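Dear support,

We are seeing what looks like truncated structure output for some complexes. This example has two components. We would appreciate it if you could run it in full and send us the complete token output so we can diff it against ours.
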Amino acid sequence: MLLTGEDIGALEKRYRGRFINAVTGVKSASLIGTKSKGGDENLALFSSVVHIGAHPPLIGFVMRPVHVERHTYKNIVSTGHYTINGVTDRMHERAHQTSAKYPAGTSEFEACGIEKVYLEKFSAPFCAESAVKIGCVLEDDIAIPANNTRLIVGRIVLLSVPGQYVHADGYVDLAAASVAAITGLDGYHSLNPVKRYSHAEPEKKLKQTFP
Amino acid sequence: MLLTGEDIGALEKRYRGRFINAVTGVKSASLIGTKSKGGDENLALFSSVVHIGAHPPLIGFVMRPVHVERHTYKNIVSTGHYTINGVTDRMHERAHQTSAKYPAGTSEFEACGIEKVYLEKFSAPFCAESAVKIGCVLEDDIAIPANNTRLIVGRIVLLSVPGQYVHADGYVDLAAASVAAITGLDGYHSLNPVKRYSHAEPEKKLKQTFP
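Here is the complete output from our reference environment:
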């Protein structure tokens, strides 16, 4: 299939949504946990989490237009704190269920059967089952003019990863940790074991360094 | 392992880079193709491609700080055109090699053995082997204050996907298309077959819709 921008604009709305959400490639499956100023807990699935930088440690994700009420956005902006939790193969069905439109005041932790946990004195709730648990403070809330979405950038202030999945050089083996991938709007995959390569240099053949 | 922001800041630089690049979860493996105003072709690997919107069809990726010369950025800003090409399992070793620092004027297509193709009258080169080929025009070039990276947002004006991988409802089966995933800085994975779920609604049990 070869489509122009005009062809894409003419597609049926839901077909286009599934199609365009798939072509960007494999995506992370992350649950974002927040707590409102009034104490209501919220958990929502995002497939747009992206690495922004390591020093300082920064993570971004894309928030859809906020002219309608979005509990995750409201809680992040009002409290400055949120958690990003990696979805595993055993969690993805329950994680997908958090994308249902529950009323404000309903905790998706309870409605979807995902156990919460609080770590240290961080004010937002984490997912107990997630291998990777990240506590963020809001750093930048950036408008994307092209379609009124927003890039939310957070700085990692708390990070929990089981040591058994961390290689000696800092790499985290997400396949061994059963971390799930998303494709499109509703497709979930487990990962086959990793192949790692050496740092690339011109005129030098890459080595496979793992496994 | 439980680390605070201070603990992360104290990690050895390369360890920290590998570690923080891994914790955001599974990432897309994309080759971005450009051509300079002088006609030099460039191809570079990115793991930060992210869905921004379907209508209009928008894709973003994160560009590292541009105080040093970045051929991809220079070409995108000067021509307004670039391609995003999905890396497959058979390509990822050669795709990783494009991350070596080749001098300006060296085409990574040739240096890394990746065949190029031009589609319609689009001015930037595509990767012939990529199942998903996307032609973009630059829409927004947005500064991220937290660390001087940039979010580059493009609108899809040309899109090629083999029809055999497109489900009747618009979903694209990237696992069947052998599209690769990245973890961390240098880890590559193939995907296990997809499981798809129905649209989530409160008080309604999810159905598995595929396979």
